[in-house]
Amino acid sequence: MVTVTIRAWSDYQTTGPATNVIDYEKPHIFKVQNFMGHWCDFCANFMWGLIAQGVKCQDCGFQAHKRCSEKVPNHCMPDMKYVKRIYGCDLTTVVKAQKSLIPIVVEKCVKEIELRGRVLCASTTFHFTAGTVSHADAEPDASDVAEGPGVLATTVYTDPLQHFQTVGQYELPCLVCVRLGEGDGENECEGMDQEGLYRLAGFHDDVEALRMAFDKDAENVDVSSSRFEDVNTVCSVLKLYFRLLPIPLITCEVYKRLMEIIKTEDLSQSEQVRLMKEPMASLPPAHFHTLKYMCAHLRSENLAIVFAPTLMRSDDANPMASLMAAKFEQKLMEVILVNHTKLLGK
User: Where do the Phorbol-ester/DAG-type domain residues begin and end (predicted)?
Assistant: First the structure.
């Protein structure tokens, strides 16, 4: 019998900016509108005229005179009936409309990717329960894996070996034991061990189908292996979500400040981390918590080259400038991944 302790989903800490999405500051997105007998939601006076009497927020439906709209505070509370899609929509708008700390598409994809790696590993030799991994002959059910709001911070492939207790005469994690022949030889682990994870693209038609499903009804999307067998499809959909954000996960303003720190040659990594804390803390709450969630999921430094252009970008449209910045972006992403607990909290 071998037991490996796993941190439960509920152990994910939400330190940092406000965790109540209602408190997130978000301006209204007003658009000129034609009304038929309507009153201003700000001043409560009638909106006179035949056409273009006022403006209406595209995210929450707030209606006001043009002059009144200039006085409205940034208290927009988006409603999903006005938010027509998830992909290509502002991150703060999505989390406020869904009333969740991070976008549902991110949480569902990350959980599914990690679940596949753990369950497929467990199917050969080990049985997963809410807090432990135990040797068992029976094939585990996916429901046995701990669930909850957060990420599985302890990952099989990236945690130090000392996190795993002795297996027989070997002090090795369960996956290594399976490779040594303790499995049945038929159900080898794939999941997080699959070659090209986050590097290989999923089948285009499946990626588009899953994207449209998230846009239509994010809460009820089925991303399980019974619906999408290739884990690369789920990975591609997750990366596509970040690529289509109108404001990148690491905002352009914060990106500039972080790049200045990374480009300073005479700074040690500890000094870089110290200087990076302030700009990282200035990220909008929705961006901060989503980045924290993703960093706890990724963990591997070699993924910096894959995710750097996905999670951050410059507002400079010059392609040569973007090309020159690529190596610094990769270095920045690596520093964030390695030191994410210092920068974003545990």
Answer: 27-76
**Of the candidates 62, 56, 88, the residue with the CA atom closest to the CA atom of residue 75:** 62
Q: Where in the chain is the domain with CATH 1.10.555.10?
A: 252-344
pLDDT per residue of the chain (346 residues) written in tens, 0 to 9 = 333 233 333 334 444 455 555 556 656 566 565 555 677 777 777 777 667 778 887 777 778 778 887 777 777 777 777 777 889 988 988 888 888 889 999 999 999 998 887 655 554 444 434 444 444 444 444 444 333 333 333 443 344 444 444 334 333 343 333 333 333 333 334 445 555 678 888 999 999 999 999 998 888 999 998 999 999 999 999 999 999 999 999 999 999 999 999 999 889 999 999 999 999 999 999 999 999 999 988 866 667 888 888 999 888 777 888 888 888 999 999 999 999 999 988 7
Q: What sign for the dihedral angle of Cα 252, 150, 88, 328?
A: positive
Element of type H or E holding 118: helix 104-122
Q: Please give the model's pTM, rounded to 2 decimal places.
A: 0.67
Helix (H, G, I), strand (E, B) or coil at 49: coil
SS3 (DSSP) at 90: coil
In the chain, the largest separation of any two C-alpha atoms, in whole Å, equals 84
Name the 3-class secondary structure at 22: helix
DSSP state of 26: B
For 43, other C-beta atoms within 10 Å of its C-beta total 13
- Decide if 178 contacts 189 (C-beta within 8 A): yes
Q: Say how far apart CA 260 and CA 202 lie, in whole Å.
A: 35
CATH fit for domain 252-344, picks 1.10.10.10, 1.10.555.10, 3.40.50.300, 3.40.50.1010: 1.10.555.10
Q: Which residues of 205-220 are buried (b: 16+ CB within 10 A; e: fewer)?
A: ebbeebbebbbeebee
Q: Which two tokens stand for residue 15?
A: 């330190």
Question: For the chain, where are the E strands, in sequence order?
Answer: 3-5, 30-33, 54-57, 63-64, 126-128, 132-135
What is the spatial order of strands in the sheet that 126-128 belongs to?
Answer: 3-5, 132-135, 126-128
